[in-house]
Specification:
12-stranded mixed sheet, 2 domains, mainly beta, 19 strands, Fumarylacetoacetate hydrolase, domain 2, about 10% helix, SH3 type barrels, homodimer
Chain lengths: ~260, ~260
Amino acid sequence: MRWIHYSAPGAAPAYGLLEGDRIRAQRGTPFGAHEASGAVHRLEDVRVEVPFIPRTFYAAGLNYVQHILAGAARRGETPNIPARAEIGYRAVNALVADGEPVVIPADATQIEYEGELAVVIGRRGHQLSEADALSCVLGYTIGNDVSERIWQKSDRTFWRAKNADTFKPMGPWIETDFDLDAAATTVRVNGTVTTQFRTGGMLFGIARFISVMSRYITLHPGDVIWMGTDGKSPALKAGDVVEVEISGIGCLRNPFVAESS
Amino acid sequence: MRWIHYSAPGAAPAYGLLEGDRIRAQRGTPFGAHEASGAVHRLEDVRVEVPFIPRTFYAAGLNYVQHILAGAARRGETPNIPARAEIGYRAVNALVADGEPVVIPADATQIEYEGELAVVIGRRGHQLSEADALSCVLGYTIGNDVSERIWQKSDRTFWRAKNADTFKPMGPWIETDFDLDAAATTVRVNGTVTTQFRTGGMLFGIARFISVMSRYITLHPGDVIWMGTDGKSPALKAGDVVEVEISGIGCLRNPFVAESS
């Protein structure tokens, strides 16, 4: 089942179920009671919205080996592969929807993508075993953890390196039926494949992260966990279009543009 | 003006204006249109709620000199006083209201308080000069940035050291008329003053932080910025009651309890 958050022309944002290119409009949300309103739209006629505004926006950070090795090589450091599943955070201000532009700040110099699986929490979860951990998951979407590498190295926090406005595309929708073992993440820049990896090839899997987190943290409906990325990105520039595709979910496509002065 | 978020017996949470010990109930929120409903409650008859769930939960972290010196001494490190206003983050899952217990995890060993001024954003703010920065501020409340110091040192992120459930008391209400220059922050443990400092004695003030942040980040109604703390805390234990008072705002009071096994 695919939950899409969209705006039909002249209407407020609403949720619908996407079947092929048809949206069956719903009253309510994926996180609570809902029912068909009877309205039907064509996907091409609506604007796709951010699937939801997370209550808490979690991010695994370093969770695939090749990405960790590439980052260490770029910084001239010894790779430091995490021994434990330790979650981090991203910020809501930075979210944009599928199709919306990522704005490169005028003083940014090294912009890269990170294509990520995003886990959408649908039910309250606290002190879950690994065996039970996925019981709180509603579905999956796609994130692009856009990063400015110079600021990532120079700043004390990730506030502008990873959380500048528009640096967190998420979407295009939430897929509830997803086979992680069969999934590949493919990133294309201007139509050319630049990164591809097995989505499930994580250091610490989804169940492990949720189990570890929920020892101290209650997960709530509308929380999201971005699971990290593998490989490396070319340096991006204004005019590029980045597509992050995860097989079985869909494709998140965003143009990169220069900040207007 | 004092905005309080509260639950009257048997009723859903609502906003009101607090005058002395009387609450004049409002329809709407402090962040949008509102009008008096006509109902009046006594403060002692309601449950105080978290003033609002932040959209993005910002935290200045290191922003007062004595706190930075004390932390470095505790860790046996050279003090590293920030040269720039770089914002960090805390997590919504950890929020509790005035009066609610802070639960000390069974495996926590060194729990401390941090009494902080919290700046409540009421209007959209983007690329604000320092002179204009406070135009986006609705008011002020109080936060206690409860921290587990062993985890803060051992972990890659602050996920459990600062963001375990209940580690972020915020309240008791939002004060819109506040004189920062005249304000003192006083922390008491079991009624005895343990920390006191000039609230305005920050390395980087509120206007500076907002101006720097808003270069890259749009602030939104319902965002909050915790401004950091000064001094140091004794080690806390189950049974302690911590009060963070900021003159001109009020007093945030929370009991600390042991996690039930």
